[in-house]
Structures are given as structure tokens and as C-alpha cells.
Amino acid sequence: MNPFPENIKKISIPAPAGPVKKEALLPQIPVIERHSKAKTEIKTHVFEGSPEKYYSAPEASRLADLKACYEDAETDLILCARGGYGTGLLLPQLDWELVRKRNIPLLGYSDITALHLGMYSKGVRSCFVSPMAAKFSETEADEYSSGALRNALMQFYGKTGSYKFKMPDGRPMPRTIKSGEAQGALFAVNLAVMTSLCGTAYMPDMSGAVLLIEDVGEAPHRLDRMMAQLHLCGILEKLGALIYGQFTESGAGEDILELIRQRYAKYVKGPVLADFPFGHGFPFFSSRFGGEIRIDMKSEIIFL
To answer: What is the pLDDT of residue 1?
Structure first.
């Protein structure tokens, strides 16, 4: 399924975080172009590399590529190449007036959470939590994942109205840890990246928000520590609802992860759900960052 609406004619691909392997990204380009009917442009510095080895390119180069995406009047959508680390360092240097003026969708997750949080805090409402360019063939092949992204983008462009969240076929609905009702902005984030922005100018006000969290490769004590930070910052207490996504490759049994979920659920005033299809794997439920949702007493979720 083509996840992109027909008005998307050009997709620009930057790498604002970690290094990108040519053998991972280049085979995705014909797949993207074939299904989207859009032309793509890999930005200049995506494969440049850096002395540290954990950035795709030096800071100035990564910033230049992002700026070039927004300065190009033909670019309709920005699809980040991959996550990793380094996006947060770019936030103080972005031309926020330009980003707000262009108001084009920027897609990604994982380390791109830093961009999403920063953009929302600066008044930008065109961020989307979705799989990235290096995994596009997996996204396209998974009807649930590609359909979820298309729904989110179509709603952004006013081509569809509200819709009800559904799980992939054969899977139960998200589990209710704590029942209740809530309506607010949905922030789907990587937990580690979000906690790294606590106390900065790039953390939006979470009052009444629905927070959806995921992470990968974090041991249980680190997950516990990050949840404790959200509690000690007063963020959990401000939330309208909390939804636990996937914590993959944690090295912990489900019993330990459930203890952590239950421990921090008690600080949230509204409903708390678990086992949502959001994390470092497929199926992946894409959403507009900050889009309005409602959770009812039956734990059904409506995207408004």
C-alpha cells in the first residue's frame, strides 16, 4: 500500500542523527518512488560520515541538510533516513520561522523524537511519528503499518475525518492497566530521547496530553530510572493518559517490565494502557505528533 497521499510529489531524505549505510538506504529509493509516484532526493551529506562514527555527518552538515529540505520549495515531505543519536544538538540552530512557514510533514521516530518535541514546542504541527526511509520496504509490505501512516497523513491534509484505532488482525486491543477517560494531544515518543530534553526549552507542556512511550535496548533499571525522571519532573502527574508501547531488547522478562508499568501508572490521573503497536519493529502504528485523540471508558481510541 502507498502510505503517501497523491499530493506528495517530492520527498527529501536527510539523516539528522546516526550514520546511514548505503546498502540499507539506496535499495529503498526505487521502492519509495514506485509506490509513492513521487521523486526523492537524498540530501547532500547523508553518507558523509563523522570522526565520532555515531553521527551521519558533522553537526554543520546535518543542519545544512535539514535547512535545505525546508528551503526547497518543491519538497512536500521530509522522510528521515534513520534514528540513532544527534538530532537534539540541532534544535538551537534551526530556523524555526522557516520551519513554521513551510509546515510540511516531517516523518520519523526514535532519535527523531527530539525534532518532534522541539517542533511542537515551537508551534509546528506537521510532525509525524512513523517508520523511516531505511525501513520503507518493510513499511510498504505491512498493510497495517502503511495504512496507519496513510490515515494520519490524509487526516492532516483534511482528506478524511476522525477514525477509530484498530489493532492488527488477530491481535487483542491494548491492555487496560487503569481505566478512565481522556482527550488530549498524543505525543508518541522514544522514552530515552524525551527524558534527555526534560528541563530544556524544547519540551512541550504535557498538561492533559496522552503520552505514548517506547524504547529499545534499555535495561529495566534504566527504563525505571527514566520513568522516575518523568515522575520527579511532574510530567506523569500532568498527563491526561499514558500508553505503554514496546520495550524491545530490554533483557528483562515480562514480569519485570510489568512491575515498572504498574509502578508509574499510579501517578497518572487518567487511563493507562499497555501493549500498543509502537516501537522498534513492525507492525507500527503511525500518528501525527500532537494530534488530538480521545480514550473512552472501554479503552477505545478515536483519532479526532
So the answer is: 81
Whole-angstrom CA distances from 218 to 226, 249, 273, 279, 287 are 10, 7, 20, 13, 24
Whether residue 61 contacts residue 48, with contact meaning beta carbons closer than 8 Å, is answered with yes
What gap in Å lies between CA 175 and CA 100, rounded to an integer? 37
**pLDDT given for residue 170 in this prediction:** 86
DSSP H or E run through 106:
strand 106-108
* Phi, psi of 121, deg, nearest 5: -65, -20
CB atoms within 10 A of CB 106: 26
Gap between the Cα atoms of 130 and 108, Å rounded = 5
- Residue 243 makes CB contacts below 8 A (sequence gap 6+) with 174, 210, 211, 212, 213, 272, 273, 274, 276, 278
Q: How far is CA 289 from the centre of its chain?
A: 7
pTM tops 0.70? yes
Angle between helices 220-232 and 254-265 (to 10 degrees): 0
pLDDT at 187: 98
Residue ranges of the chain with per-residue pLDDT less than 50: none
- Taking only Cα atoms into account, the Rg of the chain, rounded to an integer number of angstroms, comes to 18
| 15-to-90, 112, 182, 300 alpha-carbon distances in Å | 12, 10, 35, 36
pLDDT at 219: 97
Q: What domains are there in the chain, each with its CATH number? A: 10-156 (3.40.50.10740), 163-303 (3.50.30.60)
Cis peptide before 58 (omega within 30 of 0): no
Cβ proximity of 194 and 235 under 8 Å: no
Q: Is residue 66 within 8 Å of 44, Cβ to Cβ? A: no
